[in-house]
# Entry
Amino acid sequence: MKPQTINFRSKASQTMGDEEVQQAIEHVYTGFFKGRLVAAADTPDWEELRTKGKAIKDHTIAHLDYYLGLLADNVEKNGGSVFFAEDAEEARKHIIDLAHARNIKTVIKSKSMVSEEMALAESLNDEGIETVETDLGEYIIQLANETPYHLIAPAVHKSRKEVAELLDDDFKEGDRVPDATELTMMAREKLRGVFERADMSVTGVNFAVAESGSIALVTNEGNGRMSTTVPRVHVAVMGMEKIIPSIQDLSTMLRILIRSATGQRISTYVTMVNGARKPDEEEGPEEFHLVIMNNGRQKLLADPQMRESLNCIRCGACLNACPVYRKVGGHAYGWVYPGPIGAIVTPVMTGLKDASNLPAASSLCGACHDACPVKINIPRMLLELRYRSAEGSTDSAERTSSASERFVWKSWRIGMMGRKRFDYGAKLARLILRPLARNGWLRKSPPPISGWTSTRDFPLIAAGSLRSRLAKRRKKAKS
Amino acid sequence: MPENPSNPTIPDRVTLFASCMVDQLAPAVGESTVDVLEHLGVTVDFLDDQTCCGQPAFNSGFRSEAFPVATRFIEIFEKVEGPIVVPSGSCAAMVRNFYGDLFRDDERMIGRARNVGDRLYELTEFISSFFGTDAVVGQLSDDATYHKCCHLLREIGIDEQPIEMLSNIDGLNLTPLERDDVCCGFGGAFSVKMPDISSAILDEKLDYIESTGAKTVVAADTGCVYQMQGGLRRRGSDVQVVHIAEILAMSIRNASGAGAKR
Amino acid sequence: MTDRAKFIASVTSSLGRSEVLSPSEEAADASTAVFENADTAKANADRAMSDASERSDTLTAQMAAMAATNGWKVHRAGNPEDAADLIASICEQKGAKSVLRSNHDVLSQIGVDSAVTNTGATLGVTEHDGENSEANIQDAKSAAFTADIGITGVDYAIAETGTVVLHPRSGLSRLVSLAPPTHIAVLRSGEVLDSLDELFAMERNDYLSGDLAGSMNLISGPSKTADIEGTTVTGIHGPLEVHLIILENG
# Structure
């Protein structure tokens, strides 16, 4: 997927002005966010689980080369094939070639954000291979020709009416809008036949277990199960960081993933696949292919300040907690991963130059850090990327701060480096702004703070600093 | 993180760190802070040279500008001993949690910063740790609600204590604020650089505030106070937003018979 | 250099090293179980099994409660005949014409076949007949997609999460619990594990003894989605209705 991070401000503005979408996005808070809080409160050792999950991921990433080798060996031992893809282009080409080589007519897709990096469904369809998204939310946005809005709920921004327009062949403007159950049953009907005739599936991977070469899939709908059972060829795509060392580790990771994503104790289905169909089974794919993709993750790995972002287990909790995401929506982030996690990985994976608005669009409230099941310190990394955009990047193209911004902070520093100038600066500001003030408040202000008064009143500098007031008190006390 | 020992020696002298915003925009907050601390029997010193901890530039990525300002801050405050108290969770967080990143290439500065940070407290943290949340007893009749400022909550770890302190004010009718732990949208320079997003977040906060029916909103960080007050004023609302230091100081004055002074 | 070698080499250099470093067991607080040897794994699995047996009543009760919360329709059968009767009445209630069952031994034990066929429904058994011809595979698929009800046994259940665990081993199939709109799972008391920890202890032990099943499905309720306006709807791609029959003294 081509990054459109440069359009962040305008897309954000569009979303904030869309009342329907704003109402729809509320569900991530009232549903997922609240759900996680309840599930966490319901889990006596929740904090220990988070600590354990973080330790497992820290360890895995610190030895990622070792565990990649172990995973590949074991997948092959199970009779599967492994393809290491440097980038999305390589991965996409490999899967398309495989589909052609196996004479594939119909591909079913289960949810995979990594496949969005490759724009896989679109590409396969362009090749004349019918490719259908089977996760209901993904199916809806495929029909809408859009990209996912959220990690877990891709169509969260769609109203029921919009879904009806996409799903219900008979729906016309003015008709009663079918309820969610009716629409869901329509989707079930439509996708039934696709499941039956699919000859290849592409799924994501929630966890790849290195010691056994297994993959685990977490779903509620059953499309993940269909995908790992019905077609003769199963392709699983994963980012290279999605590994955990041991089968036993799954109990910790599944607990923190699922409760953080939706608030459920467990998803309806957890499927563990250990290679292709065994000789004495009559069902299941004949072939299992694992595609392990880099596509810029190496940059995160090689970057000590940003490496922790690879611990992400893609639960979406940070999105649900983020006051910015809930206003600007998923598409504003301009690439595959929205929300706080997107704000830190997208600039590194696709380029900070065009994506500098992503880490800037944060009040640094820290709700994401609180929400993260593996305790990723997102605010720290937002600050790091801001530093690089402002002045710190060794690549001059990434240092995108404007001359006026640099001047502002230079002046600020000069003003803060001495008490006298600090006081005089304040007095001068008060002098200048006073004519604009009513009752100590400004309704208009000059740059650099004019953005504030576009929507809020701003206080006038006080008459007399705290220093002067306390000095007066001291004097009074002495007399 | 400063220690909050279970049997702390109760300090009788502290140094006040105003924060640049309180110093020049809201000095009454600083004066109220002094009043409250003195009421608790604590002598408050003020270092005249202080200006800023450097956070605004740091948050905007201009670490080269933040560095000298933060260094100056350390130089000034390491000259005194004993606890330092600041009426701001975000400034306390900057010194304690983020100076490590700012000074990361300088082991010595990290050490000096830690020496200051280890004895630096946000105001409500200081009061609740050393004196208890029931130590300040005051009187103020009002309908109020409390907003949990993000850095105080998540970086310093102060959650319900300010509410407990406010509950101790006789006559203060406290209504819980729905989504009280969701950001007001301030975020420092963010509020000016991306005013549309900042205000959209603020609008939701103000809607919840208005639905409490409260006449006063209490918060512990001046930036958040102004974000909310500025937005309420622009809506034409009469709701007042005050810093917790101010409302505590007022309530103490009322209780001592000195009369309410706003 | 192969693609794999090149790929891994660049990961190694991103980690600031020149060659792959095997993680040491003393890796501080790694929290992963990967260093636990086969003996430990076996001990963990044995402990899980004996716990399941010793606390069978408690765990079964917990499982029943959790499953009900998850949307399973939970039934208790005191003996095999009652279990078969329960299944027959579900078939009648759903007006089932075609029923498919897996080859799990508990189903032969309760004599489900006659109970089902007596309701007038046809009954198919998914069993591997030694041939994986294209025709056989297609037949098996069609049978599953046209059946009204799918019946399976279970390998384990998990009390923590209200889950049944199915290993599609020889003869046991997967679609039978997925494609039909109603799924009936028969659980024997004594098969309920305490939590996910115990399940994965069993799985890890299976793996280390060379006996890991080709796949494993954890099923914790009816299929569902909340992708439309956050409203939860049951029965999107998997079964809309799931029944758990707990056979006491199985």
